[in-house]
Write a structure and sequence with these properties.
Layout: H1 3-13, E1 18-23, E2 32-38, H2 47-58, H3 61-64, E3 68-74, H4 76-82
Parallel strand pairs: 2-3
Antiparallel strand pairs: 1-2
InterPro entries: BolA, BolA-like_sf, BolA/IbaG_stress_morph_reg
Organism: Natronococcus amylolyticus DSM 10524
Protein name: BolA family protein
């Protein structure tokens, strides 16, 4: 699964989400990905809860198309504070 396709799935399943997906650094195969996801649906959720939302959005892709996914998740406010 291409990074752009993963972005599209995440953004279509999580309301208001903006996802950036790339191939993970220092990995030599295409099924190790890294994603940064910003979504207002993460507000009030634990980090585990945020990650679970992303995994739920990707459903079967996590077992068939994606071997590993490095996740960074933020609410819009948290992401703005990084800049």
């Amino acid at each position: 699964m291409k990074p752009d396709d993963v972005e599209a799935v995440i953004e279509s399943e999580l309301e208001g989400a903006e996802a950036t997906v790339t191939h993970a650094r220092d990995k030599h195969d295409d099924d190790h990905l890294a994603a940064t996801v910003v979504s207002p649906t993460f507000e009030g959720e634990s980090l585990v809860g945020q990650h679970q939302q992303v995994y739920d959005a990707l459903e079967d892709h996590m077992t068939t198309d994606i071997h590993a996914l490095e996740l960074s998740t933020y609410t819009p406010e948290e992401y703005d504070d990084l800049e």
